[in-house]
């Protein structure tokens, strides 16, 4: 009777779902920001300039959160890719490539060490490569967003109306 492979696949599904949940949260945050930005009735202060800065600050905070979560997903996916899949070898169920420091990624002749499940190495490489690419893209997009929003706040692209007699 062969052992159940559920723990190995459950671990991969958990990592995958954590990264997917991160993307879902970012979509919710982006939708909320778009709704608030387009809703002219929602103002934090009496002036439009204050409202724009408040929305910009929120955008920076949420983008920074996106960088942190995407970075976490990127690191965990990279570690999962380098460690390799949990599979059945001649010595039983184990992480067959744990000590190779990722060398199995470039040497496909080592993949035959995994006897079961079929094509688990290819599946592992494809899954984690997609997660790494998407997380990296999300980090880049969030970084660009932070830089743009910080330049708006720091360089003053918002017009400031100075009332006579205040200065």
UniProtKB/TrEMBL annotation:
<dbReference type="Pfam" id="PF05805">
    <property type="entry name" value="L6_membrane"/>
</dbReference>
<feature type="transmembrane region" description="Helical">
    <location>
        <begin position="125"/>
        <end position="148"/>
    </location>
</feature>
<dbReference type="InterPro" id="IPR008661">
    <property type="entry name" value="L6_membrane"/>
</dbReference>
<keyword id="KW-0472">Membrane</keyword>
<keyword id="KW-1133">Transmembrane helix</keyword>
<comment type="similarity">
    <text>Belongs to the L6 tetraspanin family.</text>
</comment>
<keyword id="KW-0812">Transmembrane</keyword>
<feature type="transmembrane region" description="Helical">
    <location>
        <begin position="57"/>
        <end position="82"/>
    </location>
</feature>
<protein>
    <submittedName>
        <fullName>Transmembrane 4 L6 family member 18 isoform X9</fullName>
    </submittedName>
</protein>
